Amino acid sequence: MTEPSPFQANKLIEAVAQQSYPSATLYVVATPIGNSGDISLRALQLLSLADAVACEDTRNTAQLMTRYGLHKTLIAAHQHNEHEVAQKIIQRLQNGERIALVSDAGTPAVSDPGAIIVDQVRAAGLRICPLPGCSAAISALSASGLIHDQFYFVGFLPAKAGQRDTVLQQLVSMPATMIFYEAPHRIVDSVQALLQAFGGDRQIVFARELTKLFEEIHRCKLSEASAWLQADSHREKGEFVVLIEGAAQNQEDDQAEAKRVLSILLTELSVKQAAALAAQITGQKKNALYQLALEMKGE
Ligand code: SAM
Hints:
The chain is α/β, with parallel strands linked by helices. The protein contains 12 helices and 10 strands. The relative contact order is 0.10. S-adenosylmethionine (SAM) is lined by residues 33-34, 103, 105-107, 110-112, 135-137, 181-183, 207-212, 239-241.
């Protein structure tokens, strides 16, 4: 039996340090979502070379940088000043600097600030280089065991119940696995809303506190989800990604049939009458048909 080759971290670090990190470039750098070990060697090298780091919250990023023994000029770049700060970053890049863009956790510009800065830097003709790494959504999907080639990233649902339910109705016939981000104070309500919209038979996956000490990944039917959450008060705390299994083929067919019937009825009837009649014809729920009819009328 051959000896396993020794883990040569130093050699790898040296090799990464020799790679090219062009100047006058904005680097979009993914940072850990909980475990500080989850950062790439290239990200660390770039952070050590950067002239400044644009970040969502300077206190958080200062702490993260200190953990890696790095001290850099930090530029506050949050959702309220992205346009303005983009111009400052563009000036610095035009002077030949390397600027890193990070968010509090995970990949910038994914349910986090950053997209406006990236867009403006791109429009100014400057180079953008992603340094990939953690994403809560992809980590949760990879560990979910939900088998499907396609996924649809929803991110955070609207906070207002009416808007949230409208978004969910639009997703009912989505065949791809759906990925939601949710805050702990809304998780119980959101799970109720998911049950209302998708029914009890679909699979749901809770990916909680990923990469942290109390990481938990639980999969069950939507009808069992509230009971699981409430069985232990810790389960309503921390950070969550929620995944919902996509619609089975016959649900897509139901949606197509509902649209066909409604499109005929709506030529003669009000939205309310059309939804009521379509419910009798198709056997589908009146509320869902009413929402669909409103969308079809553009209301
Ligand atoms: N940009 C980040 C990314 O790439 O994943 C997401 C930032 S978003 C503001 C924060 C949300 O991501 C949380 O509310 C939660 O839904 C999810 N999240 C972040 N870290 C997580 C973790 N360790 N475990 C589970 N979900 C997490």
